[in-house]
Amino acid sequence: MKASAPFSPSQPLSCRTHGGRPSSMSMSAGARTATSVGTSSKRPWFGDLLGRLSSTMDGASRALKDAPQRFLDALVDATFRFTDQALNSAESNFAPVDETGEAIEIHQSQIRGAIPDGFPEGVYIRNGSNPLFGALHSTSSVLGQSREIWVEGEGMLHAVYFTKSSGGHLWSVSYASRYVQSETLELETARHKPCFLPAVEGDSAAIVAAYVFNYLRFGKVSKDISNTNVFEHAGRVFAVAENSLPYEICVGSLDTGDAWDVGGEWDRPFTAHPKVAPGSGELVIFGTDAKKPFLVVGVVSADGTKLKHRADLKLDRCTLCHDIGVTPKHNVIMDIPLTMDVGRIVKGGQLIQFEKESYARIGVMPRYGDADSAIWFDVEPFCMFHLVNCFEEGDEVVVQALRSPDSIIPGSTIALDKLDSEMPEVAGDDKPAKRPTAEEFFFRLYQWRLNLRTRSVSGEYLSGTDYSLEFPIISSQYTGLQHRYAYAQVVDSCGNCGKVNPKYGGFAKFYLDERSNAEIPGASLVKTQYHWLGKHEFCSGASFVPRAG
Q: Per the annotation, how and in what number is the cofactor bound (predicted)?
């Protein structure tokens, strides 16, 4: 649970004030003092009268203070109607689940296969969208409609604990799930209903109203979803989404601690994919915002106690870059044309939009650099959410990412496969039938080479057109360093059941030092090995776990 702020020793509870007005506790104490000193013992009712009057005045003050809040709540309840967004039959994998609370022991009979030799003890934690109150929500009013997009469900942590018996021969495996207890989740839970009006997608007037009402009622325009990632730094673990600060979590219980603002030094949203710089152990972060400054980069000390550097890159737009790269000496910034622009709403457009006709560029800056020290390389417009890795090679910075021609955000769904497309019943390296994915949403492994001396850039695809890929991973020991292997999840989907969110039915392993014999124009394909899950089995949130030792 969230820790309460301690009271200062110099400010005892009976002396605390609120809003410049003495509290009822301090006034009552003063009244009792006046009664015992300044009144006759024949008139004890005077002190009681002052005490009651003080209590009444304090209650009236609170009522007056709460009146605007109650009025706004009543106005929103009368104007906006919340409805649940339905999932079609092919999307049941994405339906929210209940918290387990305490960890549940998984019996050996429930485990298929074997835990590999050399697998270390530890805990796997996945963070993901799990909408509160059973579904994502839409609202309708005289102003039009607005709706939550598919990434906006509240964050739920799913933990699998791997421990060995005292003899070290038998595994004990348990599972637990808990919501990230963000400030806004606690608010809506206390009210037993959704309160934040959707403010990303919908009719312009409804979006503007959502911004205004959310800010007036709660002091922020959107809720803290905290649903995107879990990261560790300096021995602490955090749940994060890039619209707010991270929340510290307890690995053993999944309890939520305080929001982490780096000792009060970071006052803006926080990237979902910070990177630990090789060598120094510093954490490189950034935060985007719809208002200037649009993108600010930060460097947190290796012990997590201070913000060592902060730089406004002075971008002229709010780019929704989702990831940041690091090398031993540099930070890598992806300035892509997926943008957030409040001005578009006023003109009848959408808050988030992929601007196909706009520009894209990649920035390389020294670790402690500023806007003037960044070197920008213009590239063909593209969309990406996740970098594979970045590293230095001579005069070049090499950037690897999964790249697509268009963005699946903000659109809630994308068209994928035909109804009769199914995964094979057996897992293994045999390839299933190729699965067509809408070309504009097809992610392929791509590599740029940015020459810091000549300021030239070249790029090529490293994967083909057979399978769309997402959520790349490498061994974290090689973050920012040259590496031989990378992994990604392979898109698969059951169904022409309307439009569905992507599902992942297997994994790809890339041998980056080995080239395949396949020839595709504009590509230098690397050797790729596939592993497929079973029929109707899907995955997300894969992690790389090095073998013990």
A: Binds 1 Fe(2+) ion per subunit.
Alpha helices for 136-194 (secondary structure H): 183-191
Burial of residue 154 (CB within 10 Å: 0-12, 13-18, 19+) is buried
Element (H, E) at 188: helix 183-191
Question: Which residue type is seen at 137?
Answer: H
Rounded-to-integer distance, Cα 234 and Cα 251, Å: 14
pLDDT at 58 > cutoff 90:
no
* Upstream peptide bond of 366 is cis (omega within 30 degrees of 0): no
The pTM (predicted TM-score) of the whole model is: 0.83
| Interaxial angle between packed helices 24-38 and 45-79, expressed in degrees from 0 to 180 and rounded to the nearest 10 | 170
In this predicted model, what pLDDT tens digit does every residue of 273-322 receive, in sequence order? 999 999 999 999 999 999 999 999 999 999 999 999 999 999 999 999 89
Q: What are the sequence ranges of the domains in the chain? A: 67-260, 271-381, 386-418+432-548
Q: In 282-420, which ranges are continuous DSSP H helix?
A: 342-346
Is 386 known as a binding-site position?
A: yes
Single-letter amino acid, residue 445:
L
Would you say 322 is a known binding-site residue?
yes
- Identity (one letter) of the amino acid at 275? K
Can you name the residues that pair with 155 across neighbouring β-strands?
129
Contact 507, 519 (CB under 8 A): no
Asked if 356 and 306 count as a contact pair (C-beta separation under 8 A), the reply is no
Distance CA 90, CA 86 (A): 11
- Helices 45-79 and 204-218 meet at what angle, rounded to 10? 170
Structure tokens at 62: 């609170």
418 φ, ψ (degrees, to nearest 5): -80, 155
The residues near 384 (Cβ < 8 Å, ≥ 6 apart) are: 322, 323, 334, 336, 401, 402, 403, 404, 443
Is 238 strand, coil or helix? strand
Q: Using DSSP, state whether 21 is helix, strand or coil.
A: strand
Q: How many helices (H) and strands (E) does the chain have?
A: 5, 33
| DSSP sequence for 394-418 | TTEEEEEEEEESS--SS-S-B----
